[in-house]
Amino acid sequence: MRPLDNILTTAEQVLGVKVLDPLQCPDLRPAYTTEIPDSIPSEDMEYLVGKGVFDVPNLALRNELLVTFVHNVHPYMPLLDINPFVEAIESNGKRGKVSLLLFHAVMFSSAAFIEPGNRDSDWLVSRKQSRQGFYEKAKILYNFDIETDRIVLIQAALLLTYWHEAPDDPKDARYWLEIGLSCAVSIGLNYEPDPTLPPAMQRLRRRLWWCLYTRDQLVAFTLRQAPMIRGDIQNLSLLTLNDFEFLNPIRSGIDVTNHLGFKMARSTHYQKQWSQIFIEKTKFCIIVSQVLSVDGSNISAGCDPLKTCDMRLDRWNEALPTGVQYQPPTYLEISEAERSLLAYQAWLRILFLAAKSLLCRLQRPQREGIISKRTHLPDFPDVKTQDTIQGITNITESLDSTDSIQYLPTTAVALLLPVITVHVFNIRSGKMDLWTAGFRSFHCCLKVLKRMGKIYIIAETVAHFLEFAICGDTLGHNVVEIWPRAPWLFEKVLTNNELRCLHRTLGYE
């Protein structure tokens, strides 16, 4: 007898009706999802039903989210074998099953990239709300130990790292990374796969480890944290194009990509370019891991480790294949495929410029925090840093002009903060040339943050704060009156000196 069976029997006797047992309900879960373990107690199942974890979007919205995942999420983290995943869903479980936890994680990661419309008003009121809804369902399923497959747990955890909207939420990106890393190490994902495994599983395991590694390094880089994955547990060779699975337009007698609208993914050319960019991203992250291991407080001018990292970054950038290099578009009307690829190339370029900017700041720590008694502004940035900052601004402006901002991942919000902070310093510098250039660049970055604010709560918060900080006086408000302190992301991203200078510039000190 399962827990609460006696209560169900008593209720039936008193009420004279059959009480629904969730475990016996054949339509409880979508047919294309794996079965719920029998070990889940009945009362837990009732709770899960009440939370709507078995509810899925209607067919049109579900398919659009799948298309969006392939176009806008999978290139950045190729952690799935797309062919069997899509076929299982498209065939309604006749050609395989998918994890319900992983399904909701995929839907969550995709919801950031589609426009709200009339597809299903109950499901897509706004991108922020739909993301939160899918995230909560995936989180609940994880908390109830619905899934035991560690590969699936790693895949879902990696996708859920894209949720870090609240500073006091303990289940932030690092929380999910820790889960993913723990599962990965427990199954030896950080070693070369067993050659007796099926080739597809060998390729998946290699990609999955590098997805975990790059995500860990980039979260650490953007939020100025120490990465969790150390070099001594990295025992895997670099990826090659042979490690990637390309979406097969015709498989098992059904043209899945045509039916679901995978027009862009039907092109092997684009898929190979996405894969090549991911390979180059792994090389970038290996260099960044060395930058993050250097303690900036103990660095003197001309420190060899930083110069070595700087030279390695330059060599990496110079060796980028043509299809990976970012080139501003020469015309504004570009296809969806071109916008997606352009955003990925641009993001890789932004990462490079952000790393160069960080190295500049680390190589001159003795100057970074000097405050001018006359202006209360920091004695930075120098010409080299200004160039990298302006380079990032120019890229975001170009992406905005081609309507490609929405393709950037959430880490772009954190990467923009040091950039826009420098523009704030330039506006308040008292120098007309810096003010003119700074205000134009500030406006450009603010517009980008506002557009990203339609997707990410933290981007919306930062945009409102900065708008009050620069324009509040004209509206009769002081930023300190409205915002007792700067949003939490500033504290995560800026150095202590930069944060102190920002506070002084805006009147917090």
UniProtKB/TrEMBL annotation:
Domain Xylanolytic transcriptional activator regulatory, chain residue ranges per copy: 68-293
Residues of the signal peptide: none
InterPro entries in the record: Fungal_Detox/Toxin_TFs (IPR052761), XnlR_reg_dom (IPR007219)
Classification via CDD domains: fungal_TF_MHR
BP-aspect Gene Ontology terms: DNA-templated transcription
Record keywords: Nucleus, Transcription, Transcription regulation
UniProt GO molecular function: DNA binding; zinc ion binding
Keyword Transcription part of the UniProt annotation: yes
Name of this protein: Fungal-specific transcription factor domain-domain-containing protein
